[in-house]
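Risk register update: the risk of archive-format incompatibility is retired. Evidence:
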Amino acid sequence: MKLIKKIKYILMVPFVYKNFLEAFFSGFGLIDKNKEHCWNLRNGLNICVAGSKWSWFILNEVFIKKEYDVPVSEAVVIIDIGANIGAASLFFAKRFPNSTIYAFEPFEKNFNFLKKNIKLNNLQERIIPYNAAIGEDNKKMNLYLNADNDGCHSLLKEWNPKTGKYTGREFPKRITYIIQGKFGLPNNLCVMQLR
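Archived output:
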């Protein structure tokens, strides 16, 4: 069963990416990870990423596996917490054309790609990026960086049972608590955890 899922997954790549050969090379870690790469999606979106194979996996999670395709007919306000390079924000902007998306990303490298991808797709009026994380109060906290995957940084220090050590290195970053009233959100806001 796993083999059939993998084959379906691989066969979807040419239907999602216009530049699918480069996408295959990225998935196998065969492109320069120090170079910026831009993906042209068949749905009209364009997304630039660092050359890490993990960026490709993030895009596939959103656009091939459709893990963010929630069963909602209309959304007015969407909050993307941990927006990374903006794949989910772009997906939601395409899926819900009348929505406003607030995208929060604390890691500067990812945030710069997020801003670039918003501009590249001419969505500056609909996706509002913030270089911040979400927390309970306004204080400095550490962002723990994952050495392999820019999409896996965390405010939590994670224990690695294989090495017997905590993973990541500390990176001080201001954490901002977002109050519902600031964005005019209703008090009965429904929150869905997608990650």
